[in-house]
Structures are given as C-alpha cells and as structure tokens.
Write a structure and sequence with these properties.
Elements: H1 2-13, H2 20-33, E1 40-46, E2 52-60, E3 64-70, H3 71-74, H4 78-81, H5 84-91, E4 95-98, H6 107-114, E5 119-124, E6 134-140, H7 148-182, H8 184-191, E7 200-212, H9 215-221, H10 224-244, E8 248-253, E9 256-262, H11 269-297, E10 304-320, E11 323-329, H12 331-346, E12 350-353, H13 354-360, E13 365-370, E14 379-383
Parallel strand pairs: 10-12
Antiparallel strand pairs: 1-2, 1-6, 2-3, 4-5, 5-6, 7-9, 7-10, 8-9, 10-11, 12-14, 13-14
Helix pairs in contact: 1-7, 2-7, 7-8, 10-11, 11-13
C-alpha cells in the first residue's frame, strides 16, 4: 500500500501531464522504481478520427516509441486479430501468458519470448467509456515471472493511471472531431469556449465558393454509392488543395463548398488572395488529372464552378439555441455566391472578382462587367488564363 500511495502522490503532484507519451514514460519508470520487474510496457488507446484508429506507445528502459494505426485496416489487420488486445477487447478481462513455451497463436508474445520475455500481462483500462480500446500491458524478463504481489501492484497502478489517460483521450477526441467537422481554425475557437449564439468577430478573408456541375443529373441516374464516391472524390481534392494553401473548408453544402483564406499576423490581404488563387490553379490542375483517369475507367468527369472574392466577413456562431453553426456571413459571402451563379451562366470553371484580382498581381483574363442578382452595379470579373483553367 505504501508503494501504491507513493505512485498516487507522484501522479497527482509530480507527473508531467502535457502529453500521453511523457505521462506514460514517467509512469513506467515509477513502476520499476517501486520494485516491480517490468522490462517492457505497452499502452494502446483508441481515438475517434476518420483516418487514425489510435496510438500504441511502447516503453522499455532504453527506448520509447509511438505509432498510429490506420482506421481503415486496424480492426481487420492480422496484428490486431492475433493479439492480446483483441482478447482483452472481447472479454473485458485481464489476459496473462507465461512465456516459457512457444506462442504460435500470438506472434507478439512469441517475439517477446525470443527477446527474453518470461511473463506477460495485459489489463483493460477502466475508462468510463468502454466502447473503444484502452489497454496497458507489462512484460518481464525475470525468470520467475510476476509474483502475486507484483501483479497486485500493477493492477492498482493501472487503475490509478486510468483517469489521467482518459482525460487525454477525451480531449484528443474532442479536438479531432471539431477539426474534422468544422476545421482546425474554427475548431480551436469552439474548444476555447466561443459558443455564444450571435457572437462573431469581423475578419478579412479571401472566399472560395465552389460547386459540382451536373450533380443533380448524376444523382437522378446513378445509384447512391456511385454518387457518394463521385462527391467524395471531388471533396477530397478540394480539402487537400485548400488545406495545403493555408485555407479552411467551412462547409459542405450539398454539392457545394465554402472555404476561406483568412488574413492573420503572418498573412495580409494580398497574401491571402494569392494563396486562394494558387489553390484555385492547383485545384484546376488536379481536377484535370483526375478526369483523365476517370475517362480511362469510364467514370463521369468532375466538372466544377469556382468563385473567388475577398472582403470583410462576420465569423462566428449563428443558429438556434441548441444547434449552432460556426460560419461566415456578410455581403462578401453573398457576392461570392452570386459570382458562382455567374460562373455557371458563363460556363466558366473559375470566376475571380475585381476586388481579389487587384490584390494578386497575376495575369488574369478580363471578362468585362456583368450584373449580379441583388448587387446594385455591374461587376467587373476575371478568369484564369486558359493554361491554368
């Protein structure tokens, strides 16, 4: 009990809680210092991210490593299906195996045995949320294995560590979900507490408004899985290109996308406009390359309209009392939407407003002046040179 109390005091008063890796490494050292003969420890934590299934941290006295598991293959990979983790996930009970004999059914344990391991124990971490993997394991090279006192200390230590780890997992899930569904910049604002309805800040931003042409006809004539694949291929290109140029996708609206390239201390209005235009040029190139491949496979092309504008927008929360939307609103957003309508009328893949064109100092094609719905005066608009669009 004295050793358990010492570990509890260390966790509360001395442990570094900045990252899971720091906490886990310090914890393992404290367990060894308490007299428990741990040679290797492993920590498996599942998170909630569209691409990453979770983390595995492995500690020895000589090293500390971490790897992320791919969500698409994690649950069906042989490394999981033939592992103690799957057994603990299925039974929700500790799993122990003495390593004196070969372990052909569990390749990881055979690897540990060949490296000198003598005993292995894995515990489920007693998280409040039991729907995802959360396990910790210990191995020893002591020929006698873990005695009852050591196992008791390891079980108590696991219970003490568990709430600190769950805090990290829950925060990571919250951050990942916000970044996934509203974007990293907006997600950061929400997690900082900016959730008051009607609370906005005025920012300057280059505005991207794009839609997928021919989508209604495609939806009428194609099965839903094919429609979703078509839509996701297009959204995937936009997400990659916008993110690579410092922008943020705010919304997927049916087959349309609203993204912004906000100004900041490091990026003035002209730089934001240049990055938005560079993203548009890359988007056109990527779409063309994708359509070449789609033509070979007999898939319909990804045809788009894209409007670029710049101006001041209100960036913040609107919505109902229990259902908010973090977005941008204002005349600049409305004008970008009207420019997107014009791109369709003119059958142009890209339309650039005069306001943005003035900022970029790049060669653009002047299309003249056009009336936009609900905009008082005709607006001068541009498009990309033929080589770019």
């Amino acid at each position: 009990m004295d050793r358990t109390e010492a570990l509890a005091r260390w966790l509360a008063d001395e442990a570094r809680h900045d990252t899971v890796q720091e906490l886990f490494a310090g914890f393992c050292k404290e367990v060894v210092r308490s007299g428990t003969p741990v040679w290797r420890a492993s920590l498996g934590l599942e998170v909630l991210h569209p691409e990453v299934s979770g983390w595995q941290h492995v500690w020895t006295s000589e090293s500390l490593s971490m790897r992320e598991a791919d969500r698409a293959t994690a649950a069906t990979s042989p490394s999981y299906l033939n592992s103690p983790t799957r057994i603990v996930d299925d039974t929700e009970q500790p799993f122990r195996r003495r390593l004196g004999a070969p372990c052909p059914d569990l390749p990881l344990l055979e690897e540990l045995r060949l490296a000198g391991g003598a005993d292995y124990i894995m515990y489920p971490l007693p998280f409040l949320d039991r729907t995802r993997t959360a396990v910790i394991s210990f191995a020893t090279r002591d020929p006698e294995g873990f005695d009852p006192a050591s196992l008791d200390r390891l079980e108590r230590a696991t219970r003490l560590l568990s709430p600190y780890l769950e805090r990290h997992v829950l925060r990571r899930i919250a951050v990942d979900l916000l970044e996934t569904y509203v974007g990293p910049r907006t997600g950061q604002r929400i997690i900082e507490g900016r959730v008051d309805r009607g609370a906005v800040e005025m920012i300057e931003a280059a505005i991207w408004f794009a839609d997928l042409r021919g989508f209604t006809l495609l939806s009428e004539q194609s099965p839903i899985p094919a429609v979703l694949a078509h839509l996701n291929a297009w959204f995937g290109i936009i997400g990659d290109v916008v993110g690579a140029h410092g922008g943020e996708v705010l919304k997927f609206i049916g087959d349309a996308v609203l993204a912004i390239f906000p100004t900041s201390a490091e990026r003035d209005r002209a730089a934001a406009c240049r990055q938005a235009l560079a993203a548009a040029q890359e988007f056109c190139r990527r779409s063309e390359a994708e359509n070449v491949q789609r033509a070979f496979s007999g898939s319909p092309p990804l045809e788009h309209g894209l409007a670029l504008h710049v101006g001041e927008v209100a960036y913040g929360n609107v919505g109902a009392s229990h259902r908010l939307d973090f977005t941008v609103i204002g005349p600049a957003v409305n004008r970008a939407s009207r420019l997107l309508d014009l791109a369709k009328r003119l059958d142009r893949p890209v339309i650039v407003s005069h306001a943005l064109a003035r900022e970029v100092n790049r060669p653009l094609v002047d299309l003249g002046r056009y009336r936009l719905r609900d905009v008082e005066k005709p607006q001068r608009v541009f498009t990309l040179p033929e080589s770019d669009s």
